[in-house]
Design brief:
With 377 residues, the chain is an alpha+beta fold. The chain has a single domain, classed as 4-Layer Sandwich (L-amino peptidase D-ALA esterase/amidase). Strands 4-3-12-11-10-9 form a 6-stranded mixed sheet, with helices on both faces. The chain has a 4-stranded mixed sheet with strand order 1-2-5-6, covered by helices on one side. The protein has a two-stranded antiparallel ribbon with strand order 7-8. Helix 2 crosses helix 3.
Length: 377
Amino acid sequence: MRLLLVLLPMLLVVPSVMSQPVDQRPRARDLGLSVGILSPGPFNAITDVGGVRVGHVTVVEGASVRTGVTAIVPHGGNLFRERVPAAIYTGNGFGKLLGVTQVRELGELETSILLTCTLCVWKAADAMVDVLLAQPGMEQVRSINPVVGETNDGFLNDIRARPIRREHVVEALASAAGGPVAEGAVGAGTGTRAFGWKGGLGTSSRALPASLGGYTVGVLVQSNFGGVLTINGAPVGRELGNFAFQRALGESADGSIMMVVATDAPLDARNLERLAKRALTGLARTGASMTNGSGDYVIAFSTTGAAEPLVGNNAMSPLFQAVAEAAEEAVYNSLFRATTVQGHRGTIEALPLDETVAILRKYGVLGWDQSLPPGRK
């Protein structure tokens, strides 16, 4: 198979409401880090899937509130009236993912997906329901299944204050847009940490060539989990001396990750669940432990599932490859783009880029695609 590898230096950032200034830290590909064999889409983001939009609200208040809301909107219509096929897969179920049972039962999404902090799930859901009930044509609606995911940002954020308010959710939904997606310490990633460093939001995509179906798969992650950071196979966490279980067997590597997968491949709920499972293979490549106290969830949806003949089982493997690569790179982008944040209980440092790049060079994992023979890119 011809390898389609494109380096896309994307330094654009979509402003987020109430956000702190975001340093222009690079994405993975800006550093020459190519993940996998498939090409990303134009923005290397979940928004490369046509119609998908993302909105962030970053909530920073005083010295102790460091949190936010991120909205992933599958299309621009009324989702309650124009539902999309969907599935949810649980890697480890220590979490508060709202709406999971109805999605599993019916195989469809009827709301946008919100990500936020653990103790704000229900406040975010209530606000989104208010927004939907106020839409024209919803006057007789008496049941809505809001889908809201979370990770626990209680180190940097005064999570017990439950600082997410209705206006934050309204703004996240209203500001959702296509194009480049802000990453790092923004929106629902404002107060998260991963692998002992500042985590956050990250995104990536893969565009299959026509010979493999021509579909696009995009992934967005909210990283807040533990393990031993590995980047493109290089043992970065071990080399930096910052990884789980260094001092004692009982030392926690707990945390969570929310992964949202979008595709324009026409898939039913069954194959969307199969696609969601493969996102966890990309997570595993980053060195995640998926520990006892980690909530590891994947929400997958198709924007065209009901519009065309469905992709059959035998054609799923390229999509599995695409979602694994995009999930892995999305985690790296969440770390590379995140900045150091001081908050409620202390400070979480950003991944040190100079040292990380030196390790990646040491293990020969940067720019591997540039050494391919002519005709192999």
